[in-house]
Amino acid sequence: MATVQELLRTEANGAISFGNHTLQQKAKVEDFEHAGDLLKVKTYNEITKLEKNGMFLYESVPGTSVVNFVEEPTGVEFVVEGDEDAQLTVGLLEETQYEVFVAGNNVGKMTTGLSGKLSLSVELAGAGEVSVKIVQA
Question: Which CATH architecture describes the domain 8-136?
């Protein structure tokens, strides 16, 4: 998988791809229109952050590249790439239980708090990229 050179783009299937974990300096794209929403991405090798209409949607430490990010009413699905293991935080519904799948494996159920944020770790070192799917339980 190649990094997202444009920092933020719409895919042919309606998904978005964003982030560039290879950048040494911060870069951002603001006011990117997608499906009636305004997206903003900030990314480089230390952090990648995505906002939708001014609200938190995704963050990774260290920075990652994300392809085919699809947001559904019941969860999200995407492929994440990076050079080292990463901590991901995804903005979802408040106080809701989700089932989490990483690289096709069910890693269990997690419940969001009042902030609606769900955090998980992904092992990218050596793997390069993994699929993540988070769905309401």
Answer: Sandwich (2.60)
Tokens standing for 24?
């040494």
Summarised one tens digit per residue, pLDDT across range 7-40 is 999 999 999 999 999 999 999 999 999 999 999 9
Global pTM reads 0.94
Cα–Cα distance measured from residue 38 to residue 30, given in angstroms and rounded to the nearest whole number: 8
Helices H, strands E: what count in the chain?
A: 0, 13
As a whole number of angstroms, the distance between CA 61 and CA 14 comes to 26
Residues 64, 88: Cα–Cα separation, whole Å? 9
Query: What is the rounded distance in angstroms from the CA atom of residue 86 to the CA atom of residue 79?
Result: 13
Question: How far is Cα 57 from Cα 116, in angstroms, rounded to an integer?
Answer: 10
Cα–Cα distance between 44 and 94 in angstroms, integer?
28
- The encoded tokens of residue 31 equal 């006011």
> Distance (Å, rounded) from C-alpha 76 to C-alpha 33?
19
